[in-house]
TrEMBL record:
<keyword id="KW-0732">Signal</keyword>
<dbReference type="GO" id="GO:0042834">
    <property type="term" value="F:peptidoglycan binding"/>
</dbReference>
<dbReference type="GO" id="GO:0008745">
    <property type="term" value="F:N-acetylmuramoyl-L-alanine amidase activity"/>
</dbReference>
<feature type="disulfide bond">
    <location>
        <begin position="65"/>
        <end position="71"/>
    </location>
</feature>
<feature type="domain" description="N-acetylmuramoyl-L-alanine amidase">
    <location>
        <begin position="40"/>
        <end position="178"/>
    </location>
</feature>
<feature type="disulfide bond">
    <location>
        <begin position="28"/>
        <end position="152"/>
    </location>
</feature>
<feature type="domain" description="Peptidoglycan recognition protein family">
    <location>
        <begin position="29"/>
        <end position="172"/>
    </location>
</feature>
<feature type="signal peptide">
    <location>
        <begin position="1"/>
        <end position="21"/>
    </location>
</feature>
<dbReference type="InterPro" id="IPR002502">
    <property type="entry name" value="Amidase_domain"/>
</dbReference>
<keyword id="KW-1015">Disulfide bond</keyword>
<comment type="similarity">
    <text>Belongs to the N-acetylmuramoyl-L-alanine amidase 2 family.</text>
</comment>
<dbReference type="InterPro" id="IPR017331">
    <property type="entry name" value="Peptidoglycan_recognition"/>
</dbReference>
<dbReference type="GO" id="GO:0045087">
    <property type="term" value="P:innate immune response"/>
</dbReference>
<keyword id="KW-0964">Secreted</keyword>
<keyword id="KW-0399">Innate immunity</keyword>
<keyword id="KW-0391">Immunity</keyword>
<keyword id="KW-0929">Antimicrobial</keyword>
């Protein structure tokens, strides 16, 4: 292969993302960072030992949100309840997902959550769908956002490649449907 042809091939592969190494490319969809949704400063110090094996999925049991503006208010409300009313160091979950199809950063990948008790919190990422899903499933765009988040966690090295998803009621005595 001539040098100009090899260069062209390499350039096309790079532009298409096909020549990227695992470190260069992660399949992470958009995650709304804490600063964008107006998070209070976190007082959490307990870090996770990554990669974790488990993902615990729950719901907030509140009204759903289906626009970025309403979901940002909902995340703020959840954080206020957890941090100000319950006295926790931050919002309990690592990530929250709205019916708008966006992922909202809670404690993030590195910080231990407060979603599932002392046995599960140190070895899991907690994801909570914003809304009440006792009688219905989250919409497809929210489920796709969760799938993208899990792929992102594997690509970043925060989740093991053989991670297991647990419903909240699988690890706690709760009515949470997942």
């Amino acid at each position: 292969m001539s040098s100009p042809c090899a260069l062209l091939t390499w350039t096309l592969l790079t532009l298409l993302g096909l020549g990227a190494t695992r470190e260069d490319f992660t399949p992470c969809g958009p995650i709304v960072p804490r600063r964008e949704w107006g998070a209070l400063p976190s007082r959490c110090e307990q870090r996770l030992d990554l990669p974790v094996r488990y993902v615990v999925v729950s719901h907030t049991a509140a009204i759903p949100c289906d626009t970025p503006a309403s979901c940002m208010r909902q995340v703020q409300n959840v954080q206020h309840y957890h941090a100000r009313t319950r006295g926790w160091c931050d919002v309990a979950y690592n990530f929250l997902i709205g019916e708008d199809g966006l992922v909202y950063e809670g404690r993030g990948w590195d910080t231990q959550g407060a979603h599932s008790g002392p046995t599960w919190n140190p070895k899991s990422i907690g994801i909570s769908f914003m809304g009440n899903y006792m009688d219905r499933a989250p919409p497809q765009r929210a489920l796709r956002a969760a799938q993208s988040l899990l792929a992102c966690g594997v690509a970043r090295g925060a989740l093991r490649t053989n991670y297991e998803v647990k419903g909240h009621r699988d690890v706690r005595d709760t009515d949470s449907p997942e």
